[in-house]
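To whoever is on call:

I kicked off a structure prediction for a single chain this morning and the downstream step that reads the tokens threw a length-mismatch warning. I double-checked the sequence; it's 95 residues and nothing unusual in it as far as I can see. Pasting both halves so you can look.
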Amino acid sequence: KNPDHFRMDASYFNGTEGCVLPLQKDQWRKVQMRLEKGEMTLRIADAAGAPLYEGDGSACSEFLLTVPKTGDYSVSLTGHHAKGRVEITALDAEE
């Protein structure tokens, strides 16, 4: 994890892992979720707890999020017998 990139690969994941990312208003983030087995839920929320995204990636495994306001955002990944990968990356202006 660093301010521009969060990645977690799991061959067997039970529990919850999290971090805080400092994000800037109007910054775009690319989110990729790949679940091979088990269950995995990703939650990204602002400092007040309002979710920017919450889901399991089943509707769409790769998508873009725009940051509505500057601040620290919590990233929480919960898994139950999960195997897969989650990656959140900052996009450059030209991407």
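Update from on-call: the warning came from a stale cache, not from the record. Cleared it. Sanity check on the structure: Strands lie at 5-23, 28-45, 51-55, 62-66, 71-90.
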